[in-house]
Amino acid sequence: MSCLRSAICMMIMAFTMVGMIVSPALSENPVLLMATTTSTDNTGLLDYLAPHFTKQTKINLKWTAVGTGKALELARRCDVDVLLVHAPDAEKKFIQNGYGVNRREIMYNDFIIIGPGSDPAGIRGKSTIDALRGIAAKKNDFISRGDQSGTDEKEKLLWKESGLGIPDKEAWYVQTGQGMLTTINIAAERGGYTFTDRGTYIKYEASNGGSPLLKILVEGDKSLLNQYSVIAVSKENCKNAKYDLAMKFSDWMAGKETQTLIQNFKIFGKPLFTPNAK
Amino acid sequence: MEYIIAGFFQAIQLIISGDNQTWSAVSASIRVTTYSMMASLLIGIPSGFILGYFNFPGKRKLRLAVDTLLALPTVFIGLVVYAFLTRKGPLGEFGLLFTLSGIAIGQTILALPVVIALCATAVEAMDRNLRITLISLGANRRQLFITSLWEVRFGIIAAALNAYGRVMTEVGISMMVGGNIKWHTRTITTAIALETGKGMFATGIALGLILLLISFIVNVSLSLLRKKN
Question: Mind listing the pLDDT tens digit for each residue in A235-259?
Answer without folding.
Answer: 999 888 999 999 999 999 999 999 9
